[in-house]
Amino acid sequence: MDHTESLTRYVANFVDELFKNGLTDVVISPGSRSTPLAMTFAEHPHVTHWVNMDERSAAFFALGMAKKENRPVALVCTSGTAAANYFPGIVEAHYSRVPLLVLTADRPNELRDVGAPQAINQLNMYGNYSKWFHEMASPDGDPMMLRYVRRSAARAYTTSNMGNPGVVHLNFPFREPLIPDFSIEDLWEGERESFTPHTIGKRGLAEYQLDRFFSLLSTCQKGVIVCGPQTEQKLVEAILLLSEKWNIPVLADPLSQLRTGPYRKENVIESYDAILKSGSVRENVRPDFIIRFGAMPVSKPYLFYVKENSDVVQFVVEAEEGYREPAGNKTEFVITDPVAFCYQLLEGENPNSFSPFWLETWKKLNEIATEHILTESADTPLTEGHAVTHLMRVIPDQSTVYVGNSMPIRDVDTFMLRSEKQLFVFGNRGVNGIDGITSSALGAASHGERVTLLIGDLSFFHDMNGLLVGKQYHIPLTIVLINNNGGGIFSFLPQSEHQKHFEVLFGTPMDIELEKAVVMYGGFYQNPATWQEYEEALQKSYQTPGLSVIEINTNRSENVDWHKQKWNQIEHALLEQLQG
After folding, report:
1. Is 200 among the domain residues?
2. What family is this (predicted)?
């Protein structure tokens, strides 16, 4: 068997085994050394290939797709700095627990560390951010090696999606010539041995562990369930059932999937971020215990709340081992399937009866905060917070929302209230960076369902390269672009008091016309001046194919004053209720 046939059969068996294990999509960035992988993926009849020329964008595009489709997505790039440009997306995937298969092409051993072009050390280059790294053997058509390559593909796919999902990195050393020969007979039918993934069972607590859990709550009267960022719909239903049976409130992060949908949400406290901004209010809602599901919530006031109540019993429920407790409190980690855990609690005999007054207090505070959040006069100018409330009025049922970091996610936390619409809300909260947000939203929209992205001007600028893949594949994306000409979140931080350096180092105004970038990438641009025009622009965008960008111009200083005024009004009303 000559080199070309060995190369072709080796790579074809690898790609085919990934498909058999469940892979449907691969994101490819152009390059020469990766030719065998790129061409074979493109040739496979059942794998969809996406071409994204910017590797940083490609990684975030694959991440958004994997997050939305809830399955691993593969990435293919050439050797050298191409692989290094994946790094930000890989770090985000690691911390947000998203399954990615990173397949990097490399020079063969004889061309490494000798000054050859596009040759860097790619061995385990992502370090602890990958769950498994493996240097693949050089292509060989021997039957034993074809079984090896299939076994490696099956292991890679399963590992990326097993336990806490994450990144698997396989490095492929390829010698020239690099062009496969797809005229070879029985290319997909020859080696049919398949390595199926592991069977993974669901874990629950033993009876003695449940007894201990209930004993820790035996003297408690006032508890809260907290749900941070997570995407499991079955957990939504389980948490709501538990909340109803136990009569305790649920503090629901905007990325928890608990604020929307056709569920009974009477105990959901979606305005907890606004409620807990006041230290005086926090003193009046001291809990006896906290049970948290999902990652740590976005809300900084909630972090203060947890730290100020470090002596109360706190549980963090994790499906797999992991440490997501940044408050540093003494915490009971419950490592079990979260859905199964909720149903075990529902079926168990809780020896305690929790205070109904506690739940009613939270519900009344939520009602007051919500009323003030929605309050808006007819002449209220365009503001960043109400951009969210008006979006919630217009967005269609069964929609996906992707939220940028910095101010957008915080405004969504405050202004995205409960809704009967079924919305799926995502964000890149693994490391909270502003890079790659647009690409992630495009990845989430890649299979044809329109996504609405709420993003700030700096984040939009940071990932403009990502818009090209949207243009190439006519991906349906509506972008609500909040342009306050700089880094709006810094205006809320202590840095804003140091005016000498603030604008240059933190405000960072760009003073560029973003409309021209939208036009360059074939998008439909609108710049509404009133709330009515904004809602009309949203409706029009949902009927327009491809990319639509709605730019909302705001003023950073006015935005800070407006937010502070709103929060002061809420604090005054809440304290009046608590002290009355």
Report:
1. no
2. Belongs to the TPP enzyme family. MenD subfamily.
